[in-house]
Design brief:
With about 475 residues, the chain is of the alpha/beta class. Helix content is about 40%, strand content about 10%.
Length: about 475
C-alpha cells in the first residue's frame, strides 16, 4: 500500500457511515408521521429553528457588567475557533435574539424584515454569516433535522419538491385542524404543530393530477410520496439564499422568484405549466431557512416590493403563477446614509412598517476593542515581527475615543467616560450613572473610526520596509 493509499485509508476509518445514512434518510409519508410523533420539532418554522439553534449553544453572564447582561455563546463562534466571534455588542445581540424569540413564539416578529443597521465595519455581515453557517451546521444534527418530499414516478425516479416544502403541507386544508390536534395531543411539542401555507405550484400540479387518478382519495396520493431529510447548504443553494444589488440593467426580480424555462415550453405547451418553470429564485431557494439581503436598501424599488409580501404574508409571486407560500427568515443589512434615504422616502412607508431595525454600533468598551486586534495581531499570526508593548491598547483606545460623545456631566471627560464603560470605578459614579450615560448618548458607537481602518494601519506598519523609508 502506498503512502497516499494509507492516508486515504486513515481518513476513511474516521468517517461515520451511520451519520451519512441519517442525513440522507428516505422513507414513506407514513414513516414521516412516525418521526413527527417521536420528534415533533422537525415541523418547526424557520424562525423557531433559528432561535433554538442559538439557544442550544447556551448563555453565560458578562463578567464585570453593570447591567446584568448575558452573552450568547453562539456569537463566540465556538465551532470555528472564534474566527468570526463578535466582540462586545452584547446589548445589540440580546435585542437580536429577543426578536428571534418573539418570532419563534409567533408574536408578530416573524412577519417582519430584520434589518441590521450600523456604520461600516461594525460586524453586520459577520452576524449574518454566523447565522447562515450556524443554521447549515445545525441542520446536520438530530436537533436541527428537517424533511421534504418528492413524487415517485413509475420508472422509480423521484421528482423532488423544488422548494423543499414541509411534507405536512400535503394534507388538505379541511383535515389540518383535526390532524394537528391529534398530533399535538400525542407529541406535546414545545411549539404547537401548525400546518400553514400550501405546497409550491409544481407539487400542487402533481397532487391534483394524482388526486384525479385515485378518484379524490388524498390518502392514496400520499402513498406515492417519498420523504427525505434535507440538510441546508449555502453552496448547494438549499435553504440559504443570498441576494445583493447589481447593475439595474443586469438584474431583475426573477432572481428572487424564479423564471420560465423557455426550453421546456415546447415540451409542455404553455408558459403557465409549472413543469416549464424554474423555481430557483433566492426566495425559492431560501424556503425553510433564511435569506440575506446584502446592502438591502441599495436595491431598486421593484425588488423591495417583493419583500412586502414575503415578510408580512410569507408569500411570493412567481411569474405566471398564483402567490406561493414561503417560510424563511429575511435578514438585511445597511448603513446610516441608506437608512436615512428610506426614512425620507414617503413611497417606502410600507417597507418601513414591516421592518425591525437592530442597531449594530461600533464597540465602545476598550477591552473588547483590544480583543478585536489581538485576534489578528498575536504571536501566532504575526511571525518574525515585534509589536511594541501597548501598541494595540493605544490604537484601540484612540478608536473608541472617536466613537464616544461628550458627556452632559460637565466634570466628566471623554477619557473618564471610556474608563467607566470599561468597568473602572470613579468617585461619585455608580452603575446607575453609567447606565444613564449610555441612555443619554443614543447615537454613541454609530460614528467614529472603523476597526478596519486601524487594522489597515497596523498591517501597513508590519509590512513596510523601514530601511527603505
Amino acid at each position: 500500500m502506498t503512502s497516499g493509499q494509507q492516508l486515504l485509508s486513515s481518513w476513511s476509518s474516521q468517517l461515520k457511515a451511520d451519520s451519512f445514512q441519517q442525513e440522507n434518510w428516505q422513507g414513506s409519508f407514513a414513516d414521516y408521521l412516525d418521526i413527527v410523533r417521536e420528534k415533533p420539532y422537525v415541523c418547526r418554522t424557520a424562525w423557531q429553528r433559528l432561535y433554538d439553534m442559538i439557544m442550544q449553544e447556551g448563555t453565560y453572564p458578562v463578567e464585570g457588567s453593570r447591567e446584568n447582561l448575558i452573552r450568547y455563546r453562539f456569537f463566540d463562534d465556538p465551532h470555528n475557533e472564534g474566527q468570526d466571534a463578535i466582540f462586545g455588542l452584547t446589548q445589540p445581540l440580546m435585542e437580536l435574539v429577543n426578536v428571534f424569540k418573539s418570532a419563534a413564539l409567533k408574536y408578530g416578529a416573524e412577519r417582519r424584515v430584520l434589518l441590521l443597521h450600523g456604520p461600516v465595519g461594525s460586524s453586520k455581515s459577520t452576524i449574518a454569516r454566523l447565522l447562515k453557517r450556524g443554521i447549515e451546521r445545525y441542520s446536520h444534527t438530530d436537533a436541527g433535522a428537517l424533511y421534504s418530499f418528492g413524487w415517485k414516478e413509475s420508472d422509480g425516479t423521484v421528482t423532488w419538491d423544488p422548494m423543499n416544502g414541509e411534507p405536512l403541507q400535503l394534507i388538505p386544508t379541511s383535515f389540518r385542524e383535526q390532524f394537528c390536534e391529534q398530533l399535538n395531543a400525542e407529541a406535546n411539542p414545545e411549539y404547537a404543530i401548525e400546518i400553514v401555507g400550501d405546497i409550491c405550484p409544481l407539487s400542487r400540479y402533481y397532487f391534483q393530477e394524482r388526486l384525479r387518478q385515485f378518484g379524490g382519495d388524498w390518502t392514496k396520493v400520499l402513498e406515492t410520496v417519498e420523504i427525505r431529510r434535507v440538510t441546508l447548504s449555502e453552496q448547494d443553494r438549499v435553504g440559504i439564499g443570498t441576494f445583493q444589488p447589481k447593475d439595474e440593467k443586469n438584474q431583475d426580480s426573477t432572481e428572487l422568484t424564479g423564471d420560465i424555462n423557455y426550453r421546456k415550453i415546447a415540451e409542455y405547451g404553455s408558459e403557465s405549466d409549472p413543469r416549464a418553470f424554474n423555481f430557483d429564485g433566492e426566495f425559492n431557494v431560501a424556503n425553510r431557512g433564511l435569506i440575506e439581503f446584502i446592502e438591502v436598501l441599495k436595491l431598486d424599488v421593484a425588488f423591495l416590493y417583493d419583500l412586502l409580501g414575503a415578510s408580512q404574508e410569507h408569500k411570493i409571486k412567481p411569474k405566471k403563477f398564483a402567490q406561493t407560500d414561503i417560510d424563511t427568515v429575511i435578514i438585511g443589512h445597511t448603513n446610516e446614509p441608506e437608512f436615512r434615504k428610506l426614512q425620507s422616502n414617503e413611497f417606502m412607508e410600507a417597507l418601513r412598517d414591516r421592518t425591525i431595525k437592530i442597531d449594530i454600533p461600533y464597540v465602545t468598551k476598550l477591552s473588547e476593542e483590544i480583543r478585536i486586534y489581538e485576534k489578528d495581531y498575536n504571536q501566532r499570526r504575526v511571525r518574525g515581527k515585534h509589536i511594541a508593548p501597548h501598541t494595540l491598547e493605544t490604537a484601540a483606545m484612540w478608536a473608541v475615543l472617536t466613537r464616544l460623545e461628550e458627556a452632559k456631566h460637565h466634570s466628566l471627560s471623554v477619557m473618564q467616560k471610556l474608563k467607566l464603560y470599561n468597568g473602572k470605578t470613579l468617585p461619585g459614579f455608580t452603575s446607575e450613572n453609567v447606565k444613564q450615560l449610555r441612555r443619554d448618548a443614543k447615537g454613541e458607537g454609530m460614528h467614529g473610526i472603523s476597526p478596519r481602518f486601524v487594522q489597515d494601519q497596523i498591517s501597513n506598519a508590519l509590512v513596510v520596509n523601514i530601511r527603505g523609508t
